[in-house]
């Protein structure tokens, strides 16, 4: 495998208020990112974006923080690319629920035309 990262995590959730942002910031505090200069969390209006590449991401803490704040009007997703296990795990936030699905990265790349 050519990737130097074991995990890549990308996602967003909206509408996110200050309380949700603070909860996510606390949940992400123990993440071990590859580069310190890339922000793990970013606010874009009422959206919070997560962008992570590194060796450890506190997934269960982040999902618990989202679940504690989740309301029916929230929308978004959190994709976890496990480069070592070659798997995509997608968490979708919709209608007050978190739905988890997974697929082989080979299947995902075939489906997207790459």
Descriptive overview:
- There is one protein chain.
- The protein has a single domain (7-112), classed as Alpha-Beta Plaits.
- The chain is globular, with a radius of gyration of 14 Å.
- The chain contains three helices and seven strands.
- It has 114 residues and is α+β, with helices and mostly antiparallel strands.
- The protein starts with 6 loop residues before the first strand and ends with a helix.
- The longest helix is centred in the middle third of the chain and has 11 residues, at 59-69.
- Strands 1, 2, 3, 4, 5, 6 and 7 form a seven-stranded antiparallel β-sheet that branches.
- The model has no long low-confidence stretch (mean pLDDT 89).
- α1 (18-27) runs antiparallel to α2 (59-69).
Provide a concise account of the structure shown:
This protein is α+β, with helices and mostly antiparallel strands and 114 residues long.
List strands and helices in order, with pairings.
Blueprint (H helix, E strand, L loop, with lengths): L6 E8 L3 H10 L4 E2 L7 E4 L2 E10 L2 H11 L5 E8 L4 E8 L2 E8 H8 L2
Antiparallel strand pairs: 1-4, 1-5, 2-4, 3-4, 5-6, 6-7
Helix pairs in contact: 1-2
Radius of gyration: 14 Å
Main β-sheet description: 7 strands, antiparallel
Portion in helices: 25-40%
Runs in which pLDDT lies below 50 for 5 or more consecutive residues are none
Question: How many strand elements?
Answer: 7
Nearest-integer average pLDDT: 89
Tally the helices.
3
**Would you tell me which CATH topology applies?**
Alpha-Beta Plaits
Distance between the termini: 17 Å
CATH class: Alpha Beta
Helices and strands, in order, run as EHEEEHEEEH
Number of domains: 1
CATH architectural name: 2-Layer Sandwich
